[in-house]
Amino acid sequence: MNNLSRCLIGVVVVLAGWSKARTGEDALILKGHTGWIGAVAFSPKGDVLASGSADKSIRLWDRKTGKVRTILRGHEDYVCAVAFDPKGKMLASGSYDHTAKLWDVKTAKERRSLRGHRGVVMTVAFSPDGRTLATGSIDGTIKLWDTDSGEERATLTGHKSWVNSIVFSADGQTLSSGSSDATVKLWNVSSRREKWSQSVAPGAGEVRCVALSPDGKTVAAGTRYTAVFVWNASDQKRGAILRSNDGDVWGLAFTDDGKSLVSGGGEWKKPGEITVWDTATWHARKTLKHTGEVLCLAVASKGEALAAGSWDKTIQLWDGRVFRAPTKPSDKEP
Question: What is the C-alpha to C-alpha distance for residues 276 and 288, in angstroms, rounded to an integer?
Fold first, then answer.
C-alpha cells in the first residue's frame, strides 16, 4: 500500500493510503483508530466522515484526503454509534457507557450528554428537521430527545430485547427499528405509537440493522445469519430475501436515489464483504472485499462515496463508481 499522507495528531500517527483492496476498485484505507470501528457516518455535504471506535474516540476525517480533521474524546467506553444532524453542525454519538452525546462539529466540543438509558446506547438518528434525536439501547427502549434542550420527550417501548438500529423516514413521520428480538418495527413519530411489527424468518437470528428507502416504501433488515429481508412498508408483505456474505449483516444503507441498497458484514477475524444490490431486480450489482469483518457502513449524499468500518480497526472508503451498474462490452470493440 502506498502511503499518501502522514498526519501527526498528538502521539497518534494516522496513515491513509490508496489500495486496490482486492476488489478491482480503488479504496482509500483509513488507519488510526486503536480499536474496532463500530460506526461511520457522512456529513450532509459528504465532505466529512465520522467514525466511532472501541478506543472510546470519534474521528472526523476529510473524505477526499483521508486525513483526520479532529478527534473527539469524552466517552468512557466504546463508541458504537454516530450520526450528523441535517445541517452538519452537530454530531450525535452512542456508547457502551450508557450515554449519548451531542457535539459541536465546528468547535469539536461536547454540547450535551444525554442520560436515561439503562444500558449501552447502540444506535442514534436525527430527525430530518434536526429537532429530535432518537436513541436505541440494549435496555429495549427507544428514546426521543429535544436536541436544543437535551430533554427527553418520549420513550418508545415494545421491543423485548436490544434495539440495535433505528432510522427516520425522509419525511420524519416514521421511525424504523430493528432488535435482537428478531423483529422490525415502524413507529408513528407524532403519536409515539407502533404502526406495525414484522418478524424475520425463523432461524435468521437477531436484527442487526435496518434501512428505509428514500420514498419510505421499502424496509430492509440485516440479520445475524447472513440474510437481508425486504418488506413493502404499506402492506407489510415480505419481498426479497438477499443473501451474500457469510456471518452477520451489520450494516445497511440505501442510496439517495433509491436505486441501490448496500449491505455489509462477515465473520469474526475473517475478511468482510460489502454487496451493492439493484433495488429494481434485487440482484447483486457489485461485491467489494474488506480486510476485516464489516461492522458498519455509510453512503454519502448523492451516492458520492461509500465507507465501511471493520473489526480490524480500519475504514475503507470508495468513491461513487461502486454504485454504477457494470457496463456491457460494446459490439464495436475489436
Answer: 8
User: Hey, what CATH class is 2-323 in?
Assistant: mainly beta
Calpha distance 178→161 (Å, rounded): 10
331 φψ region: left (φ > 0), alpha (ψ -120 to 50), beta (else)? alpha
Identify the CA nearest to 71 among candidates 108, 26, 124, 21.
Answer: 108
Output the pLDDT for position 25.
63
> For residue 183, which amino acid is it?
T
What pLDDT score does 4 carry?
31
The residue to which cell 443473501 is assigned: 243
Separation of alpha carbons 192 and 132, rounded Å:
13
Query: Which grid coordinates are listed for 79?
Result: 463508541
If we measure between CA atoms, which residue out of 232, 329, 317, 254 comes closest to residue 50? Answer: 317
Return all residues near 239 (Cβ < 8 A) that are at least 6 apart: 218, 230, 231, 232, 282
Supply 198's cell numbers: 414484522
Residues 153, 190 contacting (CB under 8 angstroms): no
Report which residue type is found at 37: I
- The position carrying cell 421511525 is 175
- In this structure, which amino acid lies at residue 46? G
What does residue 151 show for φ and ψ, rounded to 5 degrees?
Answer: -80, 145
Residue with cell 456471518: 247
pLDDT digits (tens, 9 = 90+) for 269-314: 889 999 999 999 999 999 999 999 999 999 999 999 999 999 999 9
Predicted model pTM? 0.90
Show me where the domains of the chain are located.
Answer: 2-323
